[in-house]
Amino acid sequence: MLEPLKVLKNYWGYDSFRPLQEEIIESVLAGNDTFALLPTGGGKSVCFQVPSLVNDGVCLVISPLIALMKDQVLNLKKKGIPALSVYSGMSFIEVKKTLENAVYGNFKFLYVSPERLQTELFLEYLPLIKVNLIAVDEAHCISQWGYDFRPAYLHIAKLRENFPDVPVLALSASATSEVQGDIREKLLFRKSQRFFEQSFERPNLSYSAFHMFSKENKLLTILKKVEGSGIVYCKTRRRTKEMADLLRQNGIIADYYHAGLSIEERHKKQEDWINNKTRIISCTNAFGMGIDKPDVRTVVHYDVPDALENYYQEAGRAGRDGKKAYAVLLFSEGELESLKKQVDIRFPANAVIKNVYAQVCNFLQLPSNSGEGLSYDFDLSTFAKNFKLDAYTINSVLKILEQEELISYSEEFFQPSTVEFSIDKQHLNEFEQSHPQYAEVVKGLLRSYDGIFDFPSYINEVELSKFVGINKELLTKILFELNGLGIITYIPQKEKPQIYFLQNRVKTDELFINQKNILKRKEAYEKRLKAMIGFCNEEHQCRSSMISFYFNGSNLPPCGVCDNCLKNKNAIISTEEFHFK
Q: Is residue 218's pLDDT more than 60?
Protein backbone atom coordinates (compact mmCIF):
# COMPACT_ATOMS: atom_id res chain seq x y z
CA MET A 1 0.00 0.00 0.00
CA LEU A 2 1.39 3.38 -1.03
CA GLU A 3 1.67 6.09 1.59
CA PRO A 4 -0.62 9.12 1.06
CA LEU A 5 2.32 11.55 0.86
CA LYS A 6 3.99 9.47 -1.83
CA VAL A 7 0.74 9.42 -3.83
CA LEU A 8 0.50 13.21 -3.49
CA LYS A 9 4.10 13.61 -4.67
CA ASN A 10 3.78 11.10 -7.54
CA TYR A 11 0.59 12.53 -9.06
CA TRP A 12 0.38 16.15 -7.88
CA GLY A 13 4.06 16.96 -7.38
CA TYR A 14 3.53 18.45 -3.90
CA ASP A 15 5.80 17.70 -0.94
CA SER A 16 3.17 18.36 1.72
CA PHE A 17 -0.60 18.50 2.21
CA ARG A 18 -2.66 21.63 2.75
CA PRO A 19 -4.14 22.20 6.22
CA LEU A 20 -6.41 19.32 7.38
CA GLN A 21 -6.02 17.31 4.15
CA GLU A 22 -3.75 14.71 5.74
CA GLU A 23 -5.98 14.32 8.82
CA ILE A 24 -9.07 13.86 6.62
CA ILE A 25 -7.27 11.29 4.45
CA GLU A 26 -6.10 9.35 7.54
CA SER A 27 -9.67 9.32 8.88
CA VAL A 28 -11.01 7.93 5.59
CA LEU A 29 -8.24 5.29 5.42
CA ALA A 30 -9.16 4.26 8.99
CA GLY A 31 -12.67 3.50 7.70
CA ASN A 32 -14.44 6.41 9.41
CA ASP A 33 -17.40 8.27 7.97
CA THR A 34 -15.92 11.74 7.60
CA PHE A 35 -17.30 15.25 7.13
CA ALA A 36 -14.91 17.87 5.74
CA LEU A 37 -15.94 21.51 5.75
CA LEU A 38 -13.28 23.21 3.68
CA PRO A 39 -13.42 26.64 2.03
CA THR A 40 -13.55 27.12 -1.74
CA GLY A 41 -10.09 26.35 -3.05
CA GLY A 42 -9.21 24.35 0.08
CA GLY A 43 -8.33 21.24 -1.92
CA LYS A 44 -11.43 19.10 -1.28
CA SER A 45 -10.86 16.77 -4.25
CA VAL A 46 -7.44 15.62 -2.96
CA CYS A 47 -9.19 14.40 0.23
CA PHE A 48 -10.94 11.61 -1.69
CA GLN A 49 -8.58 11.18 -4.64
CA VAL A 50 -5.50 10.34 -2.56
CA PRO A 51 -7.09 7.67 -0.28
CA SER A 52 -8.74 6.03 -3.27
CA LEU A 53 -5.36 5.74 -5.00
CA VAL A 54 -3.85 4.31 -1.81
CA ASN A 55 -6.45 1.51 -1.65
CA ASP A 56 -7.61 -1.08 -4.17
CA GLY A 57 -10.93 -0.44 -5.85
CA VAL A 58 -12.99 2.44 -7.19
CA CYS A 59 -13.99 5.71 -5.54
CA LEU A 60 -17.62 6.53 -6.23
CA VAL A 61 -17.91 10.34 -6.44
CA ILE A 62 -21.37 11.93 -6.38
CA SER A 63 -21.36 15.43 -7.85
CA PRO A 64 -24.27 17.63 -9.02
CA LEU A 65 -22.32 19.60 -11.63
CA ILE A 66 -21.72 18.01 -15.04
CA ALA A 67 -19.08 20.56 -16.06
CA LEU A 68 -17.19 20.02 -12.81
CA MET A 69 -17.31 16.23 -13.23
CA LYS A 70 -15.98 16.47 -16.77
CA ASP A 71 -13.16 18.81 -15.67
CA GLN A 72 -12.10 16.53 -12.80
CA VAL A 73 -12.16 13.41 -14.99
CA LEU A 74 -10.07 15.22 -17.62
CA ASN A 75 -7.57 16.43 -15.00
CA LEU A 76 -7.22 12.93 -13.55
CA LYS A 77 -6.62 11.46 -17.00
CA LYS A 78 -3.91 14.06 -17.63
CA LYS A 79 -2.18 12.76 -14.50
CA GLY A 80 -2.40 9.21 -15.83
CA ILE A 81 -5.22 8.27 -13.44
CA PRO A 82 -8.07 6.39 -15.19
CA ALA A 83 -11.49 7.88 -14.39
CA LEU A 84 -15.07 7.62 -15.67
CA SER A 85 -18.26 9.66 -15.41
CA VAL A 86 -21.99 8.99 -15.78
CA TYR A 87 -24.38 11.94 -16.05
CA SER A 88 -27.66 13.14 -17.53
CA GLY A 89 -27.67 13.18 -21.32
CA MET A 90 -25.74 9.95 -21.90
CA SER A 91 -27.47 7.21 -23.89
CA PHE A 92 -28.27 3.79 -22.48
CA ILE A 93 -25.41 2.18 -24.45
CA GLU A 94 -22.91 4.82 -23.32
CA VAL A 95 -23.87 4.41 -19.66
CA LYS A 96 -23.75 0.60 -19.96
CA LYS A 97 -20.25 0.64 -21.43
CA THR A 98 -19.05 3.10 -18.77
CA LEU A 99 -20.40 0.92 -15.96
CA GLU A 100 -18.84 -2.20 -17.53
CA ASN A 101 -15.51 -0.37 -17.52
CA ALA A 102 -16.02 0.47 -13.84
CA VAL A 103 -16.60 -3.21 -13.08
CA TYR A 104 -14.00 -4.87 -15.31
CA GLY A 105 -11.54 -2.12 -16.23
CA ASN A 106 -8.62 -0.68 -14.33
CA PHE A 107 -10.41 2.52 -13.33
CA LYS A 108 -10.00 4.33 -10.01
CA PHE A 109 -12.84 6.89 -10.07
CA LEU A 110 -16.46 6.82 -11.16
CA TYR A 111 -18.16 10.23 -11.07
CA VAL A 112 -21.95 10.00 -10.97
CA SER A 113 -24.66 12.66 -10.99
CA PRO A 114 -27.14 12.04 -8.13
CA GLU A 115 -30.04 11.54 -10.56
CA ARG A 116 -28.32 8.43 -11.95
CA LEU A 117 -28.12 6.62 -8.61
CA GLN A 118 -31.62 5.13 -8.73
CA THR A 119 -31.74 4.13 -12.41
CA GLU A 120 -32.23 0.39 -13.06
CA LEU A 121 -29.04 0.15 -15.11
CA PHE A 122 -26.87 1.74 -12.42
CA LEU A 123 -28.40 -0.43 -9.69
CA GLU A 124 -27.78 -3.53 -11.82
CA TYR A 125 -24.04 -2.86 -12.06
CA LEU A 126 -23.52 -1.25 -8.64
CA PRO A 127 -23.02 -4.48 -6.59
CA LEU A 128 -20.33 -5.60 -9.07
CA ILE A 129 -18.16 -2.49 -8.59
CA LYS A 130 -15.40 -2.79 -6.00
CA VAL A 131 -16.09 0.50 -4.20
CA ASN A 132 -13.43 1.65 -1.71
CA LEU A 133 -14.93 5.06 -0.84
CA ILE A 134 -18.15 7.02 -1.40
CA ALA A 135 -17.34 10.73 -1.77
CA VAL A 136 -20.28 13.15 -1.66
CA ASP A 137 -19.29 16.50 -3.13
CA GLU A 138 -21.41 19.61 -2.45
CA ALA A 139 -22.94 17.62 0.43
CA HIS A 140 -25.09 20.57 1.55
CA CYS A 141 -27.37 19.73 -1.41
CA ILE A 142 -28.84 16.91 0.72
CA SER A 143 -30.48 19.32 3.17
CA GLN A 144 -33.96 20.68 2.46
CA TRP A 145 -33.13 23.61 4.72
CA GLY A 146 -29.92 24.53 2.88
CA TYR A 147 -29.54 27.01 0.05
CA ASP A 148 -29.11 24.46 -2.75
CA PHE A 149 -31.34 21.47 -1.95
CA ARG A 150 -31.38 18.72 -4.58
CA PRO A 151 -33.80 15.88 -3.79
CA ALA A 152 -31.76 13.27 -5.71
CA TYR A 153 -29.16 13.57 -2.94
CA LEU A 154 -31.60 11.97 -0.51
CA HIS A 155 -31.10 8.63 -2.30
CA ILE A 156 -27.34 8.51 -1.68
CA ALA A 157 -27.75 6.76 1.69
CA LYS A 158 -29.26 3.74 -0.11
CA LEU A 159 -25.77 3.03 -1.49
CA ARG A 160 -24.81 1.91 2.01
CA GLU A 161 -27.03 -1.16 1.64
CA ASN A 162 -24.57 -2.45 -0.99
CA PHE A 163 -21.44 -1.26 0.81
CA PRO A 164 -22.09 -1.30 4.58
CA ASP A 165 -18.38 -1.21 5.47
CA VAL A 166 -17.31 1.43 2.95
CA PRO A 167 -16.68 4.88 4.49
CA VAL A 168 -18.53 7.96 3.29
CA LEU A 169 -16.73 11.28 2.89
CA ALA A 170 -19.03 14.33 2.79
CA LEU A 171 -17.51 17.55 1.46
CA SER A 172 -18.83 21.10 1.52
CA ALA A 173 -17.50 24.63 1.49
CA SER A 174 -20.59 26.30 2.90
CA ALA A 175 -22.81 24.41 5.33
CA THR A 176 -24.27 26.02 8.45
CA SER A 177 -24.38 24.11 11.76
CA GLU A 178 -28.01 23.13 11.11
CA VAL A 179 -27.20 21.84 7.62
CA GLN A 180 -24.11 19.99 8.90
CA GLY A 181 -26.32 17.97 11.26
CA ASP A 182 -28.77 17.29 8.45
CA ILE A 183 -25.95 15.98 6.23
CA ARG A 184 -24.74 13.51 8.86
CA GLU A 185 -28.27 12.28 9.53
CA LYS A 186 -29.29 11.91 5.87
CA LEU A 187 -26.06 10.08 4.97
CA LEU A 188 -26.51 7.69 7.92
CA PHE A 189 -23.12 8.48 9.43
CA ARG A 190 -21.91 5.80 11.85
CA LYS A 191 -20.75 6.35 15.45
CA SER A 192 -17.09 6.34 14.39
CA GLN A 193 -17.64 9.53 12.36
CA ARG A 194 -15.10 12.36 12.30
CA PHE A 195 -15.62 16.05 11.57
CA PHE A 196 -12.98 18.43 10.22
CA GLU A 197 -13.52 22.13 9.76
CA GLN A 198 -11.03 24.61 8.41
CA SER A 199 -11.19 28.10 9.85
CA PHE A 200 -13.22 30.67 7.95
CA GLU A 201 -10.37 33.08 8.53
CA ARG A 202 -8.77 34.42 5.34
CA PRO A 203 -6.12 36.90 6.55
CA ASN A 204 -5.12 37.92 3.01
CA LEU A 205 -8.70 38.58 1.83
CA SER A 206 -10.27 41.96 2.53
CA TYR A 207 -14.09 41.98 2.51
CA SER A 208 -15.99 45.22 1.87
CA ALA A 209 -19.57 46.25 1.18
CA PHE A 210 -20.38 49.62 -0.39
CA HIS A 211 -23.78 51.29 -0.46
CA MET A 212 -23.68 52.93 -3.89
CA PHE A 213 -25.80 55.16 -6.09
CA SER A 214 -23.48 54.73 -9.07
CA LYS A 215 -22.19 51.18 -9.14
CA GLU A 216 -20.60 51.57 -12.57
CA ASN A 217 -18.22 54.30 -11.45
CA LYS A 218 -17.30 52.38 -8.31
CA LEU A 219 -16.61 49.22 -10.27
CA LEU A 220 -14.30 51.07 -12.66
CA THR A 221 -12.50 52.75 -9.76
CA ILE A 222 -11.92 49.40 -8.02
CA LEU A 223 -10.60 47.61 -11.10
CA LYS A 224 -8.32 50.51 -12.03
CA LYS A 225 -6.87 50.71 -8.52
CA VAL A 226 -6.37 46.96 -8.01
CA GLU A 227 -4.37 45.35 -10.77
CA GLY A 228 -4.54 41.73 -11.82
CA SER A 229 -7.15 39.12 -12.62
CA GLY A 230 -10.73 39.56 -11.42
CA ILE A 231 -14.31 38.35 -11.48
CA VAL A 232 -17.47 40.47 -11.56
CA TYR A 233 -20.55 38.49 -10.50
CA CYS A 234 -23.93 39.57 -11.89
CA LYS A 235 -27.43 38.17 -11.45
CA THR A 236 -28.57 38.17 -15.07
CA ARG A 237 -27.07 37.09 -18.37
CA ARG A 238 -27.82 40.46 -19.93
CA ARG A 239 -25.98 42.24 -17.12
CA THR A 240 -22.83 40.14 -17.70
CA LYS A 241 -22.56 41.40 -21.27
CA GLU A 242 -23.35 44.98 -20.26
CA MET A 243 -20.58 44.92 -17.66
CA ALA A 244 -18.05 43.41 -20.07
CA ASP A 245 -18.92 46.10 -22.64
CA LEU A 246 -18.55 48.84 -20.00
CA LEU A 247 -15.13 47.56 -18.93
CA ARG A 248 -13.87 47.24 -22.51
CA GLN A 249 -15.03 50.78 -23.28
CA ASN A 250 -12.87 51.91 -20.38
CA GLY A 251 -9.73 50.14 -21.51
CA ILE A 252 -10.06 46.96 -19.40
CA ILE A 253 -9.67 43.64 -21.21
CA ALA A 254 -12.90 41.87 -20.26
CA ASP A 255 -15.30 39.19 -21.40
CA TYR A 256 -18.59 37.72 -20.21
CA TYR A 257 -19.79 34.20 -19.33
CA HIS A 258 -23.12 32.56 -18.58
CA ALA A 259 -24.88 29.20 -18.99
CA GLY A 260 -26.69 30.31 -22.15
CA LEU A 261 -23.51 30.26 -24.22
CA SER A 262 -22.44 27.20 -26.18
CA ILE A 263 -20.02 24.78 -24.54
CA GLU A 264 -17.27 25.83 -26.95
CA GLU A 265 -17.81 29.53 -26.20
CA ARG A 266 -17.76 28.90 -22.45
CA HIS A 267 -14.59 26.82 -22.68
CA LYS A 268 -12.82 29.44 -24.81
CA LYS A 269 -13.79 32.33 -22.51
CA GLN A 270 -12.81 30.33 -19.42
CA GLU A 271 -9.41 29.35 -20.87
CA ASP A 272 -8.64 32.92 -21.98
CA TRP A 273 -9.32 34.15 -18.45
CA ILE A 274 -7.33 31.37 -16.77
CA ASN A 275 -4.37 32.10 -19.08
CA ASN A 276 -4.68 35.87 -18.42
CA LYS A 277 -5.58 36.73 -22.02
CA THR A 278 -8.74 38.18 -20.47
CA ARG A 279 -8.21 40.18 -17.30
CA ILE A 280 -11.79 40.45 -15.98
CA ILE A 281 -14.60 37.95 -16.50
CA SER A 282 -18.13 39.27 -15.96
CA CYS A 283 -20.38 36.31 -15.20
CA THR A 284 -23.36 34.71 -13.52
CA ASN A 285 -22.84 32.15 -10.75
CA ALA A 286 -22.54 29.52 -13.51
CA PHE A 287 -18.85 30.47 -13.60
CA GLY A 288 -16.14 29.41 -11.19
CA MET A 289 -16.99 25.90 -9.93
CA GLY A 290 -13.91 23.72 -10.14
CA ILE A 291 -11.67 26.47 -11.48
CA ASP A 292 -8.54 26.66 -9.37
CA LYS A 293 -7.00 29.97 -10.46
CA PRO A 294 -4.80 31.11 -7.56
CA ASP A 295 -3.96 34.67 -8.68
CA VAL A 296 -7.43 36.27 -8.65
CA ARG A 297 -6.92 39.65 -7.02
CA THR A 298 -10.49 40.95 -7.02
CA VAL A 299 -13.99 39.47 -6.85
CA VAL A 300 -16.74 42.08 -7.17
CA HIS A 301 -20.40 41.30 -6.62
CA TYR A 302 -22.23 43.85 -8.76
CA ASP A 303 -25.53 42.39 -7.58
CA VAL A 304 -26.30 41.10 -4.07
CA PRO A 305 -26.61 37.29 -3.79
CA ASP A 306 -29.59 35.98 -1.82
CA ALA A 307 -27.48 33.96 0.64
CA LEU A 308 -24.17 34.30 2.47
CA GLU A 309 -23.41 30.73 1.32
CA ASN A 310 -23.27 31.88 -2.31
CA TYR A 311 -21.40 35.04 -1.44
CA TYR A 312 -18.77 33.30 0.67
CA GLN A 313 -18.14 30.63 -1.97
CA GLU A 314 -17.84 33.13 -4.82
CA ALA A 315 -15.85 35.75 -2.89
CA GLY A 316 -13.51 32.97 -1.76
CA ARG A 317 -12.20 32.58 -5.31
CA ALA A 318 -10.01 35.62 -4.69
CA GLY A 319 -6.50 35.32 -3.26
CA ARG A 320 -6.02 31.57 -3.19
CA ASP A 321 -2.29 32.16 -3.65
CA GLY A 322 -2.19 33.72 -0.17
CA LYS A 323 -1.43 37.21 -1.50
CA LYS A 324 -3.51 40.31 -0.82
CA ALA A 325 -6.92 40.17 -2.49
CA TYR A 326 -10.27 41.95 -2.32
CA ALA A 327 -13.90 40.80 -2.16
CA VAL A 328 -16.16 43.77 -2.82
CA LEU A 329 -19.95 43.83 -2.60
CA LEU A 330 -21.86 46.72 -4.22
CA PHE A 331 -25.48 47.32 -3.22
CA SER A 332 -28.24 49.91 -3.20
CA GLU A 333 -31.18 50.36 -0.84
CA GLY A 334 -33.62 49.59 -3.65
CA GLU A 335 -31.82 46.33 -4.34
CA LEU A 336 -32.17 45.19 -0.73
CA GLU A 337 -35.89 46.02 -0.83
CA SER A 338 -36.23 43.97 -4.03
CA LEU A 339 -34.49 41.06 -2.33
CA LYS A 340 -37.12 41.07 0.43
CA LYS A 341 -39.83 40.79 -2.23
CA GLN A 342 -38.13 37.70 -3.65
CA VAL A 343 -39.65 35.59 -0.88
CA ASP A 344 -43.13 35.64 -2.43
CA ILE A 345 -41.71 35.09 -5.93
CA ARG A 346 -39.58 32.15 -4.78
CA PHE A 347 -42.51 30.55 -2.96
CA PRO A 348 -45.66 31.23 -5.01
CA ALA A 349 -49.17 30.17 -4.01
CA ASN A 350 -50.31 26.61 -4.63
CA ALA A 351 -52.65 27.75 -7.43
CA VAL A 352 -49.72 29.37 -9.26
CA ILE A 353 -47.63 26.20 -8.96
CA LYS A 354 -50.45 24.07 -10.38
CA ASN A 355 -51.08 26.52 -13.22
CA VAL A 356 -47.42 26.62 -14.33
CA TYR A 357 -47.18 22.82 -14.09
CA ALA A 358 -50.25 22.43 -16.32
CA GLN A 359 -49.01 25.02 -18.83
CA VAL A 360 -45.54 23.40 -19.04
CA CYS A 361 -47.14 20.01 -19.77
CA ASN A 362 -49.37 21.62 -22.42
CA PHE A 363 -46.39 23.43 -23.94
CA LEU A 364 -44.55 20.10 -24.23
CA GLN A 365 -47.75 18.42 -25.53
CA LEU A 366 -47.59 15.83 -22.77
CA PRO A 367 -50.85 13.88 -22.23
CA SER A 368 -52.03 12.86 -18.76
CA ASN A 369 -50.59 9.64 -17.29
CA SER A 370 -47.51 9.78 -19.52
CA GLY A 371 -44.03 11.31 -19.54
CA GLU A 372 -42.16 9.33 -16.87
CA GLY A 373 -38.54 8.86 -17.99
CA LEU A 374 -38.89 11.27 -20.91
CA SER A 375 -36.77 14.38 -21.49
CA TYR A 376 -37.76 17.51 -23.41
CA ASP A 377 -35.94 20.57 -24.71
CA PHE A 378 -37.32 23.54 -22.81
CA ASP A 379 -36.92 27.13 -23.97
CA LEU A 380 -37.97 29.14 -20.92
CA SER A 381 -38.12 32.50 -22.73
CA THR A 382 -40.40 31.14 -25.49
CA PHE A 383 -42.59 29.46 -22.89
CA ALA A 384 -42.84 32.66 -20.83
CA LYS A 385 -43.76 34.68 -23.92
CA ASN A 386 -46.34 32.18 -25.21
CA PHE A 387 -48.12 31.83 -21.87
CA LYS A 388 -47.55 35.42 -20.68
CA LEU A 389 -45.84 34.29 -17.47
CA ASP A 390 -43.03 35.92 -15.50
CA ALA A 391 -39.67 34.14 -16.01
CA TYR A 392 -38.75 34.40 -12.30
CA THR A 393 -42.04 32.79 -11.28
CA ILE A 394 -41.55 30.00 -13.83
CA ASN A 395 -38.05 29.31 -12.52
CA SER A 396 -39.33 29.23 -8.93
CA VAL A 397 -42.11 26.80 -9.79
CA LEU A 398 -39.74 24.52 -11.71
CA LYS A 399 -37.49 24.48 -8.65
CA ILE A 400 -40.42 23.50 -6.41
CA LEU A 401 -41.52 20.78 -8.85
CA GLU A 402 -37.95 19.49 -8.80
CA GLN A 403 -37.84 19.50 -5.00
CA GLU A 404 -41.13 17.58 -4.98
CA GLU A 405 -39.41 15.03 -7.31
CA LEU A 406 -41.93 15.50 -10.11
CA ILE A 407 -39.36 16.74 -12.64
CA SER A 408 -35.66 17.41 -13.04
CA TYR A 409 -34.78 20.71 -14.67
CA SER A 410 -31.26 21.56 -15.69
CA GLU A 411 -29.52 24.09 -17.88
CA GLU A 412 -26.43 21.90 -17.66
CA PHE A 413 -28.07 18.93 -19.37
CA PHE A 414 -26.17 18.36 -22.58
CA GLN A 415 -25.26 15.45 -24.78
CA PRO A 416 -21.94 15.49 -26.65
CA SER A 417 -21.95 14.75 -30.39
CA THR A 418 -22.03 11.05 -31.27
CA VAL A 419 -21.13 9.07 -34.39
CA GLU A 420 -21.73 5.43 -35.24
CA PHE A 421 -21.03 3.74 -38.58
CA SER A 422 -24.21 2.46 -40.23
CA ILE A 423 -22.49 0.08 -42.69
CA ASP A 424 -19.96 -2.73 -42.24
CA LYS A 425 -16.23 -2.45 -42.94
CA GLN A 426 -16.39 -4.07 -46.39
CA HIS A 427 -19.02 -1.65 -47.66
CA LEU A 428 -17.11 1.22 -46.05
CA ASN A 429 -13.97 0.31 -48.02
CA GLU A 430 -16.03 0.29 -51.23
CA PHE A 431 -17.52 3.68 -50.31
CA GLU A 432 -14.08 5.22 -49.66
CA GLN A 433 -12.83 4.07 -53.08
CA SER A 434 -15.82 5.54 -54.89
CA HIS A 435 -15.97 8.74 -52.76
CA PRO A 436 -12.33 9.78 -52.13
CA GLN A 437 -13.44 13.27 -50.97
CA TYR A 438 -14.68 11.69 -47.71
CA ALA A 439 -11.72 9.34 -47.14
CA GLU A 440 -9.74 11.57 -44.73
CA VAL A 441 -12.69 12.18 -42.43
CA VAL A 442 -13.61 8.47 -42.42
CA LYS A 443 -10.00 7.54 -41.59
CA GLY A 444 -9.93 10.23 -38.89
CA LEU A 445 -13.03 8.74 -37.23
CA LEU A 446 -11.65 5.21 -37.35
CA ARG A 447 -8.27 6.20 -35.93
CA SER A 448 -9.64 8.46 -33.21
CA TYR A 449 -12.53 6.44 -31.78
CA ASP A 450 -12.34 2.73 -30.89
CA GLY A 451 -15.53 0.71 -31.13
CA ILE A 452 -17.22 3.21 -33.45
CA PHE A 453 -18.64 0.28 -35.47
CA ASP A 454 -20.24 -1.29 -32.40
CA PHE A 455 -21.87 1.60 -30.54
CA PRO A 456 -22.24 5.40 -30.73
CA SER A 457 -18.99 7.12 -29.77
CA TYR A 458 -18.60 10.60 -28.34
CA ILE A 459 -16.71 12.83 -30.74
CA ASN A 460 -15.20 16.27 -30.35
CA GLU A 461 -15.52 18.16 -33.62
CA VAL A 462 -12.77 20.65 -32.72
CA GLU A 463 -10.20 17.93 -31.93
CA LEU A 464 -11.25 15.79 -34.91
CA SER A 465 -10.97 18.75 -37.30
CA LYS A 466 -7.40 19.38 -36.10
CA PHE A 467 -6.55 15.68 -36.52
CA VAL A 468 -7.96 15.60 -40.06
CA GLY A 469 -6.48 19.00 -40.97
CA ILE A 470 -9.63 20.91 -41.94
CA ASN A 471 -11.68 23.58 -40.16
CA LYS A 472 -14.56 22.63 -37.90
CA GLU A 473 -17.26 24.06 -40.17
CA LEU A 474 -16.14 21.92 -43.12
CA LEU A 475 -15.83 18.83 -40.89
CA THR A 476 -19.39 19.31 -39.59
CA LYS A 477 -20.66 19.73 -43.18
CA ILE A 478 -18.97 16.45 -44.20
CA LEU A 479 -20.36 14.60 -41.15
CA PHE A 480 -23.88 15.71 -42.11
CA GLU A 481 -23.28 14.59 -45.70
CA LEU A 482 -22.04 11.17 -44.53
CA ASN A 483 -25.13 10.96 -42.33
CA GLY A 484 -27.35 11.80 -45.32
CA LEU A 485 -25.64 9.13 -47.42
CA GLY A 486 -26.36 6.51 -44.75
CA ILE A 487 -22.68 5.89 -43.96
CA ILE A 488 -22.81 7.11 -40.37
CA THR A 489 -25.40 8.15 -37.81
CA TYR A 490 -24.30 11.61 -36.67
CA ILE A 491 -26.10 13.29 -33.77
CA PRO A 492 -24.75 16.82 -33.14
CA GLN A 493 -24.10 18.13 -29.66
CA LYS A 494 -27.24 18.84 -27.68
CA GLU A 495 -27.03 21.43 -24.94
CA LYS A 496 -30.43 23.05 -24.61
CA PRO A 497 -32.04 23.26 -21.16
CA GLN A 498 -34.01 20.11 -20.42
CA ILE A 499 -37.02 19.06 -18.40
CA TYR A 500 -36.89 15.41 -17.42
CA PHE A 501 -40.12 13.91 -16.03
CA LEU A 502 -39.55 11.74 -12.97
CA GLN A 503 -43.26 10.91 -12.80
CA ASN A 504 -46.14 10.75 -15.27
CA ARG A 505 -48.16 13.90 -15.75
CA VAL A 506 -51.02 14.08 -13.28
CA LYS A 507 -54.25 16.03 -13.59
CA THR A 508 -53.91 19.53 -12.18
CA ASP A 509 -56.50 19.03 -9.44
CA GLU A 510 -54.70 15.82 -8.37
CA LEU A 511 -51.26 17.42 -8.16
CA PHE A 512 -50.02 17.15 -4.56
CA ILE A 513 -47.49 19.69 -3.31
CA ASN A 514 -46.18 19.27 0.25
CA GLN A 515 -47.02 22.73 1.60
CA LYS A 516 -45.52 21.93 5.01
CA ASN A 517 -42.07 21.38 3.50
CA ILE A 518 -42.42 24.44 1.29
CA LEU A 519 -43.24 26.55 4.34
CA LYS A 520 -40.10 25.26 6.12
CA ARG A 521 -37.97 26.01 3.05
CA LYS A 522 -39.52 29.47 2.89
CA GLU A 523 -38.63 30.15 6.53
CA ALA A 524 -35.06 28.95 5.92
CA TYR A 525 -34.82 31.18 2.83
CA GLU A 526 -36.06 34.21 4.78
CA LYS A 527 -33.43 33.50 7.44
CA ARG A 528 -30.66 33.37 4.81
CA LEU A 529 -31.96 36.54 3.18
CA LYS A 530 -32.00 38.38 6.50
CA ALA A 531 -28.37 37.38 7.16
CA MET A 532 -27.31 38.57 3.69
CA ILE A 533 -29.04 41.94 4.09
CA GLY A 534 -27.54 42.27 7.57
CA PHE A 535 -24.07 41.65 6.11
CA CYS A 536 -24.63 44.47 3.60
CA ASN A 537 -25.86 46.97 6.17
CA GLU A 538 -23.37 46.21 8.97
CA GLU A 539 -20.98 49.14 9.47
CA HIS A 540 -18.97 48.09 12.54
CA GLN A 541 -18.58 44.33 13.02
CA CYS A 542 -15.69 42.49 11.36
CA ARG A 543 -16.96 40.85 8.18
CA SER A 544 -14.81 37.72 8.53
CA SER A 545 -16.19 37.27 12.03
CA MET A 546 -19.76 37.70 10.73
CA ILE A 547 -19.21 34.97 8.15
CA SER A 548 -17.68 32.59 10.70
CA PHE A 549 -20.51 33.17 13.18
CA TYR A 550 -23.12 32.56 10.47
CA PHE A 551 -21.69 29.18 9.56
CA ASN A 552 -20.60 27.72 12.89
CA GLY A 553 -21.57 30.15 15.65
CA SER A 554 -17.97 31.02 16.51
CA ASN A 555 -16.49 34.51 16.62
CA LEU A 556 -13.14 35.06 14.95
CA PRO A 557 -10.87 37.83 16.20
CA PRO A 558 -11.19 40.97 14.02
CA CYS A 559 -9.42 40.42 10.69
CA GLY A 560 -8.01 43.95 10.64
CA VAL A 561 -8.33 44.22 6.84
CA CYS A 562 -12.06 44.40 6.03
CA ASP A 563 -13.71 47.78 5.53
CA ASN A 564 -15.30 47.76 9.00
CA CYS A 565 -12.07 46.82 10.80
CA LEU A 566 -10.21 49.55 8.96
CA LYS A 567 -12.96 52.01 9.81
CA ASN A 568 -12.88 50.98 13.46
CA LYS A 569 -9.13 51.45 13.66
CA ASN A 570 -9.54 54.77 11.88
CA ALA A 571 -6.61 53.64 9.78
CA ILE A 572 -5.10 55.60 6.94
CA ILE A 573 -5.10 53.25 3.98
CA SER A 574 -2.32 53.60 1.47
CA THR A 575 -3.06 53.92 -2.23
CA GLU A 576 -1.28 50.64 -2.91
CA GLU A 577 -3.24 48.70 -0.31
CA PHE A 578 -6.87 49.84 -0.44
CA HIS A 579 -7.62 53.13 -2.16
CA PHE A 580 -11.18 52.70 -3.38
CA LYS A 581 -12.62 55.89 -1.92
A: yes
